[in-house]
Amino acid sequence: MSGIGIIGWGKYLPEGRLTNAELATRFNVDDDWIVQRTGIRERRIVGPGETTASLAVEAGRRALEHAGLRPDEISHLILASGTPEQLSPATSAFVQRELGTAGGAHDVNAECASFAYGFVVAAGLMAIDPRPILLIGTDTHSLVVNPEDRDLGVLIGDGAGAVVLAPHDRSWLQKWDMGCDGTKTESLKILAGGSRLPASEETLRQNLHYAQIKGNEIYLNAVRFTVGSVKRTLKAANLGPDDIDHLLPHQANMRIIDSILEHSRVPRDRLITNIEYYGNTGAASMPIALAEALDAGRIQKGDRIMFAAFGAGMVWVTALIEWGAGEPTEWRS
User: Fold this and answer.
1) Going along the chain, which residue ranges are E strands?
2) Which residues contact 25 (CB under 8 A, 6 or more apart)?
3) Which residue, among 64, 65, 87, 85, has the nearest Cα to 135 in the 3D structure?
4) Residue 1: its pLDDT value, please?
5) DSSP state, 283?
6) pLDDT for the residue numbered 175
7) Which regions of the chain are under pLDDT 50?
8) How far is residue 321's CA from residue 176's CA, in Å, rounded to a whole number?
């Protein structure tokens, strides 16, 4: 079976910026209050005409260019997102149309954990069909948050990040762990718009098309499930926290990230984070942070990277990557 590795990456962030100063005025708080609770100073926000798919297209193009591949050399497109372009068809279809990728395309929705979930799914596809895969994490949470919701409003941002995955003689994905606890579905939800509660004038009047969060529940469960997953993945790899060179968590908020660091005992200097400048970009947060760390030369061959993500549901996933563990293999016929 073929292993999986990364040969290209890219990111795209909308030009619109939402600063703490603007939010402080809106919510009658001060800048320090926001920073202390979130670690965020500004966010990127979509403008008119920008969508989940349009962000994904730009990130995907940049990743393909970095990898030196044509779109028609992609065997499969995986679109990781919790904020779809529309209910039907899948967002991946819109992105495929614009990029012109070959082969199949499908969405993965594990909310903010979608990119890491998609990476594990891609490894399975690569094992049976060793050809390049384009994995894109993209979200526009600013469009599903009530402008008057302080708890979510100070957190969210928009963006997209992508990686090109190709067959390797040894998989970079060493170990992984994922799970779901469906008893926690009420912690973070968007009630209206699906089959359970179709959109109507009444759902609009009640703002049920906006996200609703129970912040303390999310905090406690995100830390508990993510730390447990990190420990299981380390145990499976026969490694300890000090053996991790880089911890790349979902960029939810800094309080959650700090608690994950504390309880997993991964040293703080191993942390990769950019939440201060972009906020919580959902499924895009991890590939954006990964792309920036790579562009800065922070990640080197042989480094162990722990992906650690969670999302509404509750779902969680960790994946241990050894950067450059294997060499690319020929896939062109």
Assistant:
1) 3-12, 16-19, 42-45, 76-80, 104-108, 133-140, 158-168, 173-180, 188-189, 212-213, 246-249, 304-311, 315-322
2) none
3) 64
4) 67
5) G
6) 98
7) none
8) 9
Give the contacts of 323 (CB within 8 A, at least 6 positions apart): 172, 299, 300, 301, 302, 303, 304, 305
Count other C-beta atoms under 10 Å from residue 2's C-beta.
21
> Sign of dihedral through CA atoms 85, 91, 95, 97?
negative
Residue 220: both structure tokens together: 């406690």
- Give me the active site residues, please: 112, 250, 280
Gap between the Cα atoms of 320 and 333, Å rounded: 31
DSSP calls for 89-103: S-HHHHHHHHHT--S
pLDDT given for residue 333 in this prediction: 73
Distance (Å, whole) CA 95 – CA 79: 8
Sign of CA pseudo-dihedral 165, 166, 172, 174: positive
Contact 90, 107 (CB under 8 A): yes
